[in-house]
Amino acid sequence: MLAPFQAALAAAKHVVVLTGAGVSAESGIPTFRGAQGLWRSFDPMELATPQAFVRNPGLVWEFYSWRREVAAACRPNRAHYAIAALERQLRQQGRRLTLITQNVDRFHHQAGSQAVIELHGSIWDVCVAGRGGRKAGPCWEDRRQPLCPGLAGRGAPDAHSAPDIPEQDLPHDEHGRLLRPGVVWFNEQLDPAVLEAADVATASCDLFITAGTSAVVYPAAGFAHIAAAQGAAVAEFNLEATDATGLCQFAFQGKAGELLPAAFGVEAEVEQLMAQAAAGGQGG
Ligand code: BJW
Prior knowledge:
Distance between the termini: 34 Å
CATH architecture of the largest domain: 3-Layer(aba) Sandwich
Radius of gyration: 19 Å
Largest sheet: 6 strands, parallel
CATH class of the largest domain: Alpha Beta
Oligomer: single chain
Protein name: NAD-dependent protein deacylase
Enzyme class: transferase
Low-confidence stretches: none
Domain Deacetylase sirtuin-type: 1-276
Binding site for NAD(+): 20-39, 102-105, 212-214, 238-240, 256
CATH topology of the largest domain: Rossmann fold
Order of helices and strands: HEHHHHHHEHEEEEHEHEEHH
Subcellular location: Mitochondrion
Structural class: alpha/beta
Number of strands: 9
Bound molecules: ligand BJW
Shape: globular
């Protein structure tokens, strides 16, 4: 299976890589589904919808502030570096790689990826909360931790008791408007320009690689189908089979951080990038 995949990679002019939470799992970021997944302990409808934010912005902010703390203590892993190294290699050869990520941790940027489409926003962004908890205007990055004194030292939300953070103690902008996390929640439209960029990339690739995603959340889950329908080869890297496995020519089971450097033939580059990052260079 590896040799035919590498032949497809060698022949591809435009590679699209779609990543999900499994790619950051080896960094220490919890996935959403599966035995240790966040949605096992936390109800997404109470924490990751605009309606939940309207009902209880303190609970939602407590959840996201805790996840920012977790992410701040983690670093990109070999899977992130492998994708960045492949992008660089393809660019040097006059080919290209577009990365579509569902992840909100920005580890792909930190690892050096350049052509990154963030489908579900970023946990480091904040935006003004408008009607119905939706975004009112553009988001901006704010990496302060905690974002405001009211969110200091709270840890993970307790599923059995609602937090007692008054709304005035939550993050606000300089005009006193309540802020919300800059991520995309369930029941919420993706940014149309972002979705368009992902659609265009998917429709024009000749190799589509999906890594570390359960392939159940739309619209991302539809991309592999679109790529396959327009003739691209599809490859999957995951711990286990998913809803997308059936349409893949190549399916590799195992950890992304172990599989991707070898499959992409970039092991030496990955070790070099990891060493640079450990020494405090680019990739942090
Ligand atoms: C490893 C590994 C290792 C682990 N190595 N692998 C069409 C049909 C049906 C429903 C819909 C539809 N269109 C829209 C919907 C509704 C909804 C949806 O898809 N629901 C489904 C659950 C059924 N979609 C939406 O609401 C989207 N909006 C939208 O479409 O707008 C239009 C619309 C609005 C209203 C109604 C209808 C249409 C928005 C989706 C937003 C998702 N948001 C979240 C939270 C983001 C913010 C945050 O971080 O808190 O995004 S939910 C969560 O799931 C997060 C993820 O990005 C997303 C996907 O999860 P992912 O990345 O796949 O992670 P896991 O945990 O599921 O899987 C991890 C995988 O890794 C597993 O397979 C492991 O095996 C593997 N793994 N370790 C390799 N080391």
